[in-house]
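Weekly sync, protein design subgroup
Attendees: M.S., D.O., the rotation student, P.L. (late)

Item 1: inverse folding check
M.S. brought a backbone from last month's batch and wanted to see whether the design step gives back something sensible before we order anything. D.O. pointed out we never logged the input encoding, so this time it goes straight into the notes. Structure tokens as presented (115 positions):
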């Protein structure tokens, strides 16, 4: 029986087909991933902008804080010259981790079996 051997394509197969053939549905799925990645990048960029860009404002508002010394180094130099690098490394690590999670969620969506 040939008809009994014909297998309906699974949802994951159809979704992969939509992606490879660049149909409207596949395009929408990819756009969703790109939007999620862009939103993540913008949120973390805002965090860096506030974290590092806010320091000059802080020292302008509280000049005595700018004159504070820690281990013989003024606080602005310590924060911008030393603390900023670990901060940027942590933000970069978080971006990579969250971007990979977005991609894994996208992959799970594409490969999810039909219910």
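Designed sequence read out in the meeting:
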């Amino acid at each position: 029986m040939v008809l009994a051997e014909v297998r309906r394509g699974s949802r994951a197969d159809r979704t992969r087909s939509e992606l490879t053939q660049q149909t409207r549905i596949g395009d929408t799925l990819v756009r969703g991933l790109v939007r999620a990645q862009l939103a993540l990048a913008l949120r973390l960029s805002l965090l860096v902008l506030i974290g590092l860009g806010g320091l000059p404002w802080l020292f302008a508002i509280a000049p005595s804080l700018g004159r504070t010394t820690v281990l013989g180094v003024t606080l602005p130099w310590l924060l911008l010259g030393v603390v900023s690098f670990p901060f940027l490394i942590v933000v970069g690590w978080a971006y990579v981790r969250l971007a990979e999670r977005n991609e894994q969620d996208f992959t799970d969506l594409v490969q999810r079996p039909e219910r």
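Discussion: Confidence is low (pLDDT under 50) at residues 1-7. Residues 25 and 111 are 15 Å apart (CA to CA).
Action: P.L. to compare against the previous round before Friday.
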